DNA sequence: GTCTATAACGAGATAGAC
DNA sequence: GTCTATCTCGTTATAGAC
């Protein structure tokens, strides 16, 4: 069957989720997928190549519904709320954790690094689009780098997922704190031209100090 | 010699840094440490136990000088600047990366989870102290949860380290964006009572919506 | 405490029947 | 495309000499 490939990809994702990257082998993947171990090599050549395919597949499956919800958002705090929803869902489903595991593995594996960077980009792009849209009419828009912020949000989210795995209460506290922090941005936004002038002055001073 | 233990711990850290957690075995550790492979088991019983010891050691070695620098900081943007300095230093030295690798491994290993949670706490505590101190006289102090924020910062930093490994330019952009974001907090701080009143109102409204 | 040697096993990968 | 069988190597861990 042609869907053996798919079963192996799904098996790889599930195995990483359950046993981590260190517990993910051709044998354990095949067992989870319910197929013969040799088929890993027939279809993908090496275990590494299968992991690369699984990395992109796991991300694509999760990003699409997330991107749809992002499109409906109207303010920054809703973005954070969506982040929390995603976080809760991922604790049950766990595809972001799969990406986190592969990201760790990618640190010493250039090929896997390409795949994980591409997967992360799948998250970053819709987030950046949402940020740009939300800040379009705002006076602080010109002062915020949406491209960089989207990357910081995505990378930070991965870090929080990993942290949640070893200290769930701490991760909850972290998310609560970020919730409160997001309010600051909206307040500055609401304050209008006064705050923006103050911001511009601050940023100019900052730029000078940096050089 | 009694310092064989230490050489093994250092070897473990260096091996994780160079080859990742998947490439870290009793043999590779011993080779890096320049000692016999059997000594891993004589001194630590199992590879896992050595990794736990290495996790705490790697963190303790890095946290102390960082905590000292934290004590000299006088505003939030200096905190972010220190974060950048740390980030640059860690790219060369790489102990945070070791923690990130172990954190990924800890997701499916309760014993390692304990060790990594404890290690993360070593970072979180001085950061929380610094935040509390910096915000002591500020009007926004009561509106910010320093405990949660310190956790978010620490976890987010780990995520950025991992992201840097697969997309260095993206990570730089992310850090730049956070730099700009930090200015927002200071501006609100400078605006004084007006902004604080606006914040309080926002937070009250938020609390209602949450319930 | 440190070494050699080795047991016991699981890993990636391949050959070849079907 | 799928299976069994197997090769080769690296893995954890231990036994026992020194």
UniProtKB/TrEMBL annotation, chains A, B:
Descriptive protein name: TetR family transcriptional regulator
DNA-binding region, residues: 25-44
Domain HTH tetR-type as annotated: residue spans: 2-62
Keywords: DNA-binding, Transcription, Transcription regulation
Organism: Lentzea pudingi
Lineage of origin: Bacteria, Bacillati, Actinomycetota, Actinomycetes, Pseudonocardiales
Keyword Transferase: no
UniProt xrefs under PROSITE patterns: HTH_TETR_2 (PS50977)
InterPro entries: Homeodomain-like_sf, HTH-type_TetR-like_transc_reg, HTH_TetR, Tet_transcr_reg_TetR-rel_C_sf
UniProt-listed Pfam families: TetR_N (PF00440)
Tree of life domain: Bacteria
């Amino acid at each position: 069957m042609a869907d053996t490939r798919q079963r192996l990809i799904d098996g790889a994702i599930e195995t990483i989720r359950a046993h981590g990257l260190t517990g993910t082998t051709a044998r354990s993947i095949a067992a989870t997928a319910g197929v013969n171990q040799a088929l890993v090599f027939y279809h993908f050549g090496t275990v590494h190549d299968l992991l690369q395919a699984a990395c992109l597949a796991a991300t694509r499956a999760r990003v699409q519904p997330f991107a749809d919800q992002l499109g409906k958002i109207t303010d920054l705090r809703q973005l954070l709320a969506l982040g929390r929803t995603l976080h809760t869902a991922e604790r049950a489903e766990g595809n972001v954790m799969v990406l986190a595991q592969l990201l760790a593995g990618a640190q010493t594996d250039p090929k896997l690094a390409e795949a994980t960077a591409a997967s992360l980009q799948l998250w970053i792009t819709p987030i950046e689009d949402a940020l740009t849209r939300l800040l379009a009419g705002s006076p602080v828009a010109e002062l915020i780098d949406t491209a960089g912020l989207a990357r910081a949000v995505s990378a930070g989210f991965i870090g929080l997922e990993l942290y949640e795995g070893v200290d769930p209460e701490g991760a909850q506290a972290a998310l609560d704190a970020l919730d409160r922090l997001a309010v600051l941005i909206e307040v500055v936004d609401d304050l209008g031209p006064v705050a923006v002038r103050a911001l511009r002055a601050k940023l100019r001073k900052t730029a000078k100090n940096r050089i």
